[in-house]
Amino acid sequence: MLSEYISNGKNKSPLTPKSIDKMPHTLAGLSFKEWRDARKSNHKMRNIRWSVLVFMNLLFVFSFWLDLSVLEGSLSGSRLVGFYLMDPFNALQLLAISSTTGYVAMLTMNFFIGLATILIFWFIMGGRSFCSWMCPYHFLAEWAEKVHLYLVNKKKIKARTYHIGLRFVFLAGFILLAILTKNLVFENLNVVGIVSKGMIYGPSLLLLWVLAIILFEVFVSRRFWCRYVCPIGATYSLVGKLSPVAVKFEHDKCGYCLECQKVCLVPHELWFVKRGAATQDIHFVGSDCTRCGLCVDVCPGHALNYSVRGASSIM
Amino acid sequence: MDKEKKTIKRREFFKGSIAATAALTIFGASTFVLDRKAAEAMPREDFLRPPGAIDEENFLYGCIKCGLCVQICPVQAISLAGAGEGLGFGTPYIEPRLQPCDFSCDALQCVEVCPTAVLDFKPFKKVGANAVEKAAAQPGVDLSQVNPFEVQKVAMKEAVQMGKAHVNKNTCLAHQEEGFRGTPRGSDFKGVHRSPGKNEISASPLRDRTFDREICDLCITECPIGEKAIVQKLSRSGKLVPHVMDGCTGCGVCQMVCPTQQPSIIVEPF
């Protein structure tokens, strides 16, 4: 049971692809192209997600500006109506350094409660959901991504991809650096923190670093920071390994059009959408998925949907 | 996945890892150098760490730069250092000439709110509890007349040690036997504080106040700690001058209110 939950059928032999008379566009009586493009302008989930993201980040800003005291602090560490929340990678670095210096004994109970709360909440909500539903940099990067794709489309620049596992090299490297230099090295480069604090406490020179990363994403590699570097995302992807909230894929509704992979931040997680790749009738998208819902919006056959894993077996 | 594809993937990972390691080395080295510079520059006269700050070495990594201390401070005395200050990016500091800590939050809220205890509340908690115990144990004390919160908060603020004020005799008005009349820092100065003499609930702007003193003693009358921190004393040459006591907490209110062009009383951080 559990191993099935984890493996998600990757090592099984694939199902036989559907024949033309079983394909959803045939069943709907449309041409493949008509069927595929039917939901291209559907942005329901994206609009909901953007609203949540903007609302939460403005809540941070106005909690300080207007002294609302609802969500104080920043994405590095905050208090939601007095209840502490801690950024997990920041906390991980601090724990790594302070366990070598003995400072770990000084940390307050609020710190540990805040860390546990965040881990439990994002475990349930799907780990990297933080990225697409909370992270202000993700929001900026989505716009940069549009420009990048436009330039690639016009053949002005070449699309470059790298190995997805590099995130974990950065994750380990930043923790090692933290211990060696006795400093939260990543916090100085953390575009998420810089943008979040820039909005709340006023802009700083460090925004130039954010600009540099955005320009890199526009002209060199699509979503470079989120895909290959950000150790916060990598931490959340570990947190969300077994998350119940996930995007569910149903093979019988899929038309193998690959529209979902085109919009996805982590297309390797949608490995089963290709013709002849799915090994089960139902797959759940893996832990690198940010639950952004772009695939849910675009899927012409409604084969991809949010769901709670294991809910049917409990109910 | 076939074998050839796997080899390509592995090579891609290997190449990426080398680039990542190079980048990480640069990040680490530059942080290390900048940090050293920041540590060498501390303590600095124009910046104080907030109350209860632990030693600088542990402070630099223990502070997660969340800014909760900044947000809770009612007089907004605390700011986060930018890239230019050379204090460690994003760490909190107080610039007392512009806005000192005037204890108008009553109970060291910036210290209490800090989740990683780089502003360490534990010693203050102990001091506060001891003070309440001591007050209650005094013979002939009517317990109903003792307000434990009041006792606690006074004891805690007196236990703060951000630095100690020093008077510059060459510029101090009292040392020149001069008085002061008017508004000390001009009519557009933004700093606020809670004046001990006025019995205010919250801080009010310094620009709204006017003083008229035969011999300038603003640093003495505006001190939130009182005679344990600073007193007026007759000097050997017969002048009435401010004299800083050992109870000075280094809050910097005197530094803000000092009416001379350059402050004649300056907090030197410990």
Describe the 3D structure.
The complex is a heterodimer of chains A (315) and B (270). With 315 residues, chain A is mostly helical. Chain A contains 17 helices and 6 strands. In chain A, strand 1 and strand 2 form a beta hairpin. The longest helix of chain A has 22 residues. The mean pLDDT of chain A is 92. With 270 residues, chain B is of the alpha+beta class. Among the domains of chain B are: 38 residues, no CATH class; 109 residues, no CATH class. The relative contact order of chain B is 0.14. The mean pLDDT of chain B is 90. At the A-B interface, strand 1, strand 2, helix 5, helix 6 and helix 9 of A face helix 1, helix 2 and helix 3 of B.
Radius of gyration of chain B: 24 Å
Radius of gyration of chain A: 21 Å
Structural class of chain A: mainly alpha
Biggest sheet character of chain A = 3 strands, antiparallel
Average pLDDT of chain A, rounded to a whole number, is 92
Order of helices and strands of chain A: HHHHEEEHHHHHHHHHHEHEHEH
**What is the strand tally of chain A?**
6
What does the overall shape of chain A look like? globular
Contiguous uncertain segments of 5+ residues of chain A: none
The helix content of chain A, as a percent range, equals 40-55%
- Order of strands across the widest beta sheet of chain A? 1-2-3
* Helix content estimate of chain B: 25-40%
Q: Structural class of chain B, please? A: alpha+beta
Q: What is the number of beta strands of chain B?
A: 10
Count structural domains of chain A.
2
